[in-house]
Design a protein that fits this description.
2 copies of one chain form a homodimer. The first copy, chain A, is α+β, with helices and mostly antiparallel strands. Chain A is built from 6 helices and 3 strands. Chain A binds a DNA duplex through helix 4, helix 5 and strand 3.
Chain lengths: ~110, ~110
DNA sequence: TTGCATAGTTTGCGACACAAACCTATTGGT
DNA sequence: ACCAATAGGTTTGTGTCGCAAACTATGCAA
């Protein structure tokens, strides 16, 4: 007897912090560019400043990203980067998602 | 100049109803077996009855699944199945997720 | 100095996920 | 027949969360 193909526990254990689309976008951006500032992320994601602010705060509190406020001349610039932990969590998330999708091949469309 | 690879709008427009892991598990199960009853889904997903009940209600209200209560002898049995609309939404979700994952190949792990 | 723009944070609110409590019906024990 | 216990679901309550509006602070232009 074949095991049931959907591993619901695996789905349920997806990292909720990364599963949120807003934060997934942020982390995906940072995975690609390695460093990005607030303004860039806001433009890329189309989020309001407040929303972006609260999400990066959560990512930082989780240890997934670092925040650095530096000055360029007289202008402050807040930039973000993935930590090793963040990248690891992200790749883990992608792996879980990939395996879920893999299992569903051929089932989703009859 | 290459376009930025992450399409945050696409990520943000993921169907929130399906994006929720609990409901994703339910719909994934139904995509595989075509019909399942309450008890089976509860066992598969490991959810409490209350939680499962509220999620299937939402899926039904969205038109993604149908609920049918039949009697087997004297025992009631509530079973669920994907509607065409539900299957369509599900395949759409999978397609979006796949394209996101595709874009990230080679970026996630440096 | 006054007004506007940029950069970001805090506050408030509506929606949501989850489990506990509840409801109803059936089965088993005596 | 009666009571307890179990099974199948639903409703209620609560803490959390995502989001945008409002606010703060700084810089620049006239």
């Amino acid at each position: 007897m074949r095991a049931f193909p959907i591993d619901a526990k695996a789905v349920a254990s997806l990292d909720r912090l990364l599963h949120e689309p807003a934060r997934l976008s942020i982390v995906a951006c940072l995975a690609v560019v390695d460093e990005a500032d607030f303004v860039f992320l806001q433009a890329q994601t189309g989020m309001t400043g407040g929303n972006l602010s609260s999400h990066v705060k959560k990512l930082e509190q989780a240890g997934y990203i670092t925040t650095s406020k530096e000055f360029q001349g007289s202008k402050p610039r807040t930039s973000f980067a993935l930590t090793d932990e963040g990248r690891e969590a992200f790749t883990g998330y992608l792996t879980s998602m990939r395996s879920l999708l893999g299992v569903l091949d051929g089932h989703a469309s009859k």
